Every structure is written in structure tokens, then in C-alpha cells.
Amino acid sequence: MGKDPLTKDSEFVVGEEKVLNYFMTAFFLALFLYGLIDAASRHFKNINYQSYVFALALMPGIYCFRRAQSKRIYIRVNKKGIYKDEQLVTGWPNFIKAYIAQEKKKKFYDLRDNF
Fold first, then answer.
1. How confident is the model at residue 39 (pLDDT cuts 50, 70, 90)?
2. According to the model, what pLDDT value does residue 108 have?
3. Termini Cα distance of the chain
4. Which of 64, 69, 76 is nearest to 32 (CA)?
């Protein structure tokens, strides 16, 4: 959350978590480099399955990097109304009511936030 309180002219914006995505990019690229160095140390002969698995870490690394570079705004709330993906959902004159609810987790290992 921002340090400044919301005012009538400010806006609330929800986008990508850039720090987390850059961290995940670094993590997956480190796994990829480990696999590449392991394969190179074997002169790309007699490579075991671990090198192949670590080499596959390049794909999620690229995905996380693209998400970190994204300027996509998921939710925007400003003095004109509420937007989802830059499409106006409702203006304030048409707004009737809203509530926040928390669904119970279906499984104990569910990581999602069920708002």
C-alpha cells in the first residue's frame, strides 16, 4: 500500500508485484545456469536428467521477467469510477453498494486469497 492516504483526487491501482517477479526471474535463471554449467562440465555428453530439468527453468524465468516488465493495471479506482483492465466497470453515480467477503478455504493447502 502507498504511504499517502487516499483522497478525493487520488487513485488506487493494483498491478503486478515487480519485486517478487524480478526475484523469481533471478531464481529461475540461476537454476538454468546451474543446469547449463553442469552440462558444460560434462562436455554435453552423458548428461543426466537433472541438467535437462534445470534447463527447463529458462521458460518460467522468461515468463516471470515478462510479468515484471508488464505495465498492466488490473484494478483502478479513481474519482471517475472503478476500472477493471482499463475498462470502466461502474461510475460513482451508478454505484449502489459493495462488500468484502472472505470465502473459507476448501483445502488446507490452498494458497489463494479468497476475497
1. confident
2. 66
3. 17
4. 64
pTM of the complete model:
0.70
Mean pLDDT (whole number) for 7-20:
88
Residue 92, by phi and psi: left (phi above 0), alpha (psi -120 to 50) or beta?
Answer: alpha
Q: Retrieve residue 78's grid coordinates.
A: 479513481
On whether the CB atoms of residues 14 and 2 are closer than 8 A, the answer is no
Please name the residues in contact with 72: beta carbons below 8 A apart, sequence gap of 6 or more. Answer: 15, 16, 85
User: Where do runs of H (alpha helix) occur along the chain?
Assistant: 18-41, 49-55, 58-69
**Residue 51 CB neighbours (<10 A):** 20
Higher pLDDT, 109 or 18: 18
* CB half-sphere exposure, 44, CA atoms < 13 A: 2
Q: Residue 3: what are its φ and ψ, rounded to 5°?
A: -80, -25
